[in-house]
Amino acid sequence: MGTAYSSILSEHAEFIANQKMFFVGTAATEGHVNLSPKGHDAFRILSPNQVAYLDLTGSGNETSAHLTATGRITFMFVAFEGKPLILRLYGTGRVVLPSSPEWEETAAPFQLYPGYRQIIVADIDIVKTSCGFSIPYYSYEGERDLLLKWAVNQGEEKLVQYRANKNSTSMDGYMTPIGVELSADDE
Hints:
Elements: E1 3-5, H1 10-17, E2 22-27, E3 33-38, E4 43-47, E5 50-56, H2 62-69, E6 72-78, E7 86-96, H3 103-107, E8 116-130, H4 146-166, H5 177-186
Antiparallel strand pairs: 1-8, 2-3, 2-6, 4-5, 5-8, 6-7, 7-8
């Protein structure tokens, strides 16, 4: 049986800080549900009810599109080592682009990895923990650097073009803030 909390407690923050990956779930009102695994040191707790993560350029941009459409977001952290636990953060998210007036302040807590495209900020209204008794053990061996190397090899100009081609709409046709920004540039 899970336990619900109205904010992130200090023991939750400690657990989150010790995890090497997390999962992000989003959905629009119609279409596909998206679940994305995330790595690197890219997640920050900004307050007991607000979190953010640095989002890197990838093959899709479903999270961004879904947040623009509905704002619904769930984060999941799982203990693969040590004491079993699953922790979920439920809330409402939004996208902060590098062109946004709030970018500098929002980006300040992060190391800006090569290929960063946006920061996802979420206001959290429910924190839930559950046992995680059935989750297997896995040992952390290190971060994969393939995405970071790919971004460096692309260079900023090619990354901008890649985002225009691959990150401006979701697989279900929802526009992302990157797509909106690109459309505004055409006007």
